Every structure is written in structure tokens, then in C-alpha cells.
Amino acid sequence: MSDTLWSIAVRGCRYAGALPEDDLHRLRKLTEDFIKIKSFEGAAGLDVSDNMRLRIALHACLPILGLGLESYADWVSIVIYPGDFRVQDEYMDEHGIVHREIADLCGQSLTQGPIVLSWDTIMKEDDSPSDHDLVIHECAHKLDISNGAANGYPPLPADMRVSDWARDFHAAYERLCNDLDAGRDTRLDPYAADDPSEFFAVISESFFTTPKLVYEDFPAVYTQLTHYYRQDTLRVMQGMKS
Question: Has this prediction a pTM greater than 0.90?
């Protein structure tokens, strides 16, 4: 990739732009390797440009800067639609009845398949930076399901205790659900209360986009995420070297 394209991509990502120089060099190498081994496929007539590949790859590599590219070994392709895309969802209720419904999505991580993204959603995020990052969200789902079901429990490094992770994430998830049930406003996207897998994906987004929110509202989860991702995102965003 050219230095110009790389500079543009970094300027469009607040967290990448705040990284210390050594980490930024590592991110660039990781991003280049990601582009080489993953396929990018346009859908519904979309032509995928080098700029689109780079933008998606950079954001996909932020969560694995401390984990390595092998964390994404179980999937290969990224499918990009111009906008939201329609899927047929199937689920079974508590009575064993199977329901089918049509849903319009901006992103999806298939358990045995690609990540699917809406380019329009990605562009809107770039135009109005917020705590949302579609690519990080879907990549967090891929990390989650790399050891089985989507349940908010990715494979943890050997120096982390599953019991500590379960305790802190369960308490935070229950508190969020209780706050929403009681009609209290929450700073974290309410979609995180959909289920534990969405809580992990949404809070991973915020960990890299608005880490102060996670640190202040869910301090125990913030600590777990710093250990898991091997990054202290709040210190980076504050201009401090980890």
C-alpha cells in the first residue's frame, strides 16, 4: 500500500492515530498481511477499491494488534454490500416452534463463513465519529465464536481466568439489562443488552472508540478487556504510552 493511502486511513481512525509509533508500524504490517490473506468481495454490483480494503483491514486489525493474525484463522472472506442487506433469519422459541423472518442488516458474522458489511454504514461512521465501529463489532463476533458458540466468551490467554471473565461480564450485562428494564438511560448502546454475545461485541467497539465510557461505566470489564486485547486503549487515547 502507498504511504498516502495509509496516512489517509490512519487519519480517519482516532485510535490508530493515537498509537505510539512502534505500535503504528506493527499495525501497518498486520494490516498489509491481513489484506494479503483475506478476500474482499463486492456484492450487489459494488466494486471494491484499494481504499475500501485498507479502511476495513485497518479497523479489523485493531482488536488483534496484541493477539496476532492467527486469531482470525477460522475465516477468509469479507463481503461488502453498498448498503444494508436483507437476510432470512430462522430461530426456535422456548416452545420449540421454528420462526422465519426477513431482516435488514448492516453487518453479519456467519459462524462458518464470511463477515458481511454495509459500506454505507462504514462511511457514515467516518463522517460522524461515534462509539460505533461496524468492522470491530463483527470482528469481535469472530473472536467470540472461534472457540464455539457466540456467547461472549472468546478463547482467553493462559494468564486469564475464565471465572473472573464470567463474573465481571455477567455482572455488567445484568446491570445494563436492569437499567434498561427500569427505563434508565445508558451510555452504552442498548443493543448490547440483546444477549451476551452482542454485549461483548458492542463493548469491544466502545473499548476502541470511546474507552473512557467503558472505563467509567464498566471498570471491571475494562480491566478484563485490557488483559484480553493486550491493549490499554484509554491510556493510548489520552496520549500516554502503555
Answer: yes
User: ∠ CA(85), CA(194), CA(70), 5° rounding?
Assistant: 70
> Which range, of 89-98, 131-140, 165-174, averages the lowest pLDDT?
89-98
pLDDT digits (tens, 9 = 90+) for 85-113: 777 776 556 666 666 777 777 888 888 88
Tell me, letter by letter, the H, E, C secondary structure of the chain.
CCHHHHHHHHHCCHHHHHCCHHHHHHHHHHHHHHHHHCEEEECCCCCCCHHHHHHHHHHHHCCCCCCCHHHHCCCCEEEEECCCEEEEEEEECCCCCEEEEEEEECEEECCCCCEEEEHHHHHHHHHCCCCCCHHHHHHHHHHHHHHCCCCCCCCCCCCCCHHHHHHHHHHHHHHHHHHHHCCCCCCCCHHHHCCHHHHHHHHHHHHHHCHHHHHHHCHHHHHHHHHHHCCCHHHHHCCCCC
The fraction of the chain above a pLDDT of 70, given in percent, is: 94
- Considering the four listed CATH numbers 3.40.50.200, 3.30.1330.50, 2.60.40.10, 3.40.390.10, the one that applies to the domain covering 3-237 is 3.40.390.10
Of 133, 124, 159, nearest in space to 211 by CA: 133
User: Any idea where the domains of the chain sit in the sequence?
Assistant: 3-237
